[in-house]
Amino acid sequence: CYAVDTWRGDEHAGFYGEEVFAKLNELHERRYSGFSRLIRSTFDEALPHFSDGTVDLLHIDGRHRYQDVAHDFESWLPKLSDRAVVLLHDINVRERGFGVWQFWADLQARYRCFEFAHGYGLGVVQVGRLVAAPLRPLFDSTAPDKVAIAQIYAQLGLLSTASHELAEARTALREREARIAVLERDRAAERDALAEAESWARDREATIEFLRADIRRLQEVAAAASLREEELQRIGDQFAGLREEELQRIRNQLAGLHEAVTQFEREAEERSAGEAAMRREIVAAFEAARRSSETAAQDAAALVLAQRRATEAEQAAERGAREAEQSAAALESVERRASDAEVKVVALSGEIAGIKTELADSRQVGRAALHALAVSNGGYAYREPRLGWRHTIQRLFGAIRRQ
Question: Pairing with 46, which of 113, 143, 264, 359 sits 20 to 30 Å away (CA)?
Answer without folding.
Answer: 113
